[in-house]
Amino acid sequence: MSIAKVEPLTTARALRGPFDYRLPEAMADLTVGSVVKVPFGRRRILGVVVGLADASALPAERLAEPIEALEAGTPPELVRLGLWIAEEYCSTPSRGLQLVLPPGTGAAGQRVRSRQELRAEITVAGEEALSGGERLGVKQRAALEALRGGEMSAPELGEAVGSDRGVLRRLEQRGLIATRSSLVRRHSAHPEVGASGGRPELLPEQQAAVEAIVAALDGEAGAPREQLLHGVTGSGKTEVYLAAVEAALARGKGAIVLVPEIGLAPQAVARFRARLGDRFAVLHSALSDGERYDEWQRLRSGEASVCVGPRSAVFAPLQDLGLIVIDEEHDASYKQEGDPCYDARAVARRRAAESGAVLVAGTATPRPESWLELPRLELPRRVDGQAMPPVRVLDMRGADPRSGALHAETWAALESVRAAGTKAIVMVNRRGFAPWLTCRSCGQHWNCPNCDVSLIVHCHTGRLVCHHCAHREPLPSACGVCDSTTLSRAGVGTEQVEALLAERLAPMPVFRLDADTAAGRGSHARILAAFGEAESAVLVGTQMVAKGHDFPEVTLSVILDADATLRFPDFRAGERTFAMVAQLAGRSGRGPAGGEVMVQTLAPTAPSIAHAAEHDATSFLAEEVERRRILRYPPFSHLTRIVLKAESEPRLDRAAALLAEGLAAVLPEDTDLLGPAPMFRVRNRHRRRLLLKASDREATVLAVRATVERLAADRALKDVAISVDVDPQ
Ligand code: ADP
Ligand code: ZN
Ligand code: ZN
Q: Number of C-alpha atoms within 13 angstroms, CB side, residue 667?
């Protein structure tokens, strides 16, 4: 093959690759997936080889040659997956390919490489020099003495006897030592947390689930290749994953375990590492570029064959993939928010199908889509035999306003927790102190100058903060309009609840876990650890408190505004609310002391809340599936959302109208086109939204891509940004 088809890593939508390059002799061993630096117009940029050919349609003398090939490339299977994503999610080949490249590789080049280290060994001549009393410098002698104990690396020698590179070079020139360069792997920076690698004897339900997965691994006739593992929290799903991963390894196959980012708490990682040892790799946003690159290389080379990680781990470069597990498959973090807006669950299904791997999606609260589409394995009870904790729904519509944000019964339950010396978790869906600041005299309300939303009061930092852009300003003590000092803070956020609890429940410590306190590296794990170690305590926070931990001393879970998520104008609001309440409920009563759950809400009869209070996912899903069938929502249709943004409102409206018109002309007949509808302004840009509800997903994506690309090329509209989200969340 003498021609490489190269997809350049540029962001321009209008460029249509791949482009042909002539391969010089020295690059004859390039394969699909190799990353090359190529001349491109007047620039030099990186590109990915997406195909090889014997001949080009262009005459050879018009073709340029790649300048160089980079150290690492990606497997051909992943190149196909990246290009598939580009099509499926209405993105560009370059953006799709970026996802599957080695960490640190971008259009500008490769920021990280493998680390090499110099290792030294004493030679026979060196031994003789030491014993024969040959003339040696003090440092040279010390280095040789140290090397008598065995081979050492240059940094180790430096540490032990202070020898620098110069000393080693001179010793080598005299033939007294031999050196070689060797590959070192940077180790992941996870704090070492102890975890036992023991294998509990599986319960019959767990055993049955593992057997069903193993039957699929062995390719038995009739064994489904994709399965939903439905089990309440604490029913032993993770043990099933571990046994399934071990079964895959025993068959010479690799496995990917996807978890929500937050599920990668040190305890969980330690549990996998303890069971899987050296075969285990983790890809994690807390790793440095170098660490992530090395973990990637370990998987690529086959040193490691199990990868645990968040969404992006679905692109782990494993060779012989046997199994993909998606833990907490309902979690919204599996959907990427930026272009390409891929859904790791859909990508996992595609990858498993292409590579003949088995797929297992596990959760206590399945999505209606998975419930309808996948055969189920059930784990109906907790491993410890405990019943699920009773849930009390507290109707806040009639609550005494004097008791404030917490219902009198919630206070009573918290006080019993203090008396019993156990722990409680309190969830509030909003960070900050209060979501609104208003002047009581003139009604002035503080809004973000860049976005159409109100500013959130943050008392800790003494600021008003916008949660949609970077805007922040000092918290005013008086109204700027009428000088009144009676400003009212309405509503509650995590900071306020923390303060209320700390005051009333003293001396019980109160910990707060939200995006503000968990911002620093390792802070999230530190807060959870402090809560875990405390004798008796309360953990207050946003949805973060409902995920990624297991504290048996928690006897009470409280959710303060269970209907907050229901008020979003989104067809998934019910599903989200159900999952949130059920997940939080699952955090209570995991120990011998049992537990209870309080759900405060203004919508006590909403099906999502009522069914979650009964721990009844089956009834909730049955109703939810019916509702979607009637309203023609996914999985009974495919949604595509197009958002347009611009500073100039007239231009935005023109673009939105043109887009709607263009789409109407090419969309398949039974597609519903909703909008353009206004959305609130963010970062000084006005927004409009179009929503498509379609039966034929492929035809819709094609129509959208063609129309959007045509509009993107229209110079008159060039300051209108258009983003497409296929299967929006
Ligand atoms: P889930 O993932 O469903 O929340 P886990 O797999 O984490 O459940 O199990 C909950 C707890 O029960 C863990 O501490 C786990 O070690 C333990 N466990 C799981 N299966 C068994 C078993 N068969 N026998 C004893 N303990 C088990
Ligand atoms: Zn005022
Ligand atoms: Zn803002």
A: 23
pLDDT higher than 70, residue 548:
no
Smallest-distance ligand from the CA of 590? 1
Asked if 449 and 471 count as a contact pair (C-beta separation under 8 A), the reply is: yes
Q: Is the pLDDT of residue 465 over 70?
A: yes
Poorest-pLDDT segment among 36-40, 516-520, 589-593? 589-593
Cα–Cα distance for residue pair 95/617, rounded to 1 Å: 38
Q: Which residues lie across from 411 on neighbouring strands?
A: none
Using DSSP's 3-state secondary structure scheme, residue 56 falls into coil
Task: Confirm or reject: Cβ of 548 under 6 Å from ligand 1.
Answer: no
Ligand 1 mutation pick, 203, 239, 327, 363, max ligand atoms within 8 A of CB: 239
Q: Residues 70-75: what's their mean pLDDT? A: 85
Q: Which regions of 41-81 does DSSP assign to beta strands (E)?
A: 43-53, 68-69
For residue 118, the model assigns a pLDDT of: 82
Helix (H, G, I), strand (E, B) or coil at 249: helix
Contact 3, 63 (CB under 8 A): yes
Report which of residues 534 and 270 the model is more confident about.
534
First to last CA, the chain: 44
- What is the number of H-type helices and E-type strands within the chain? 20, 32
Query: For 256, how many CA atoms within 13 A lie in the half-sphere containing its CB?
Result: 32
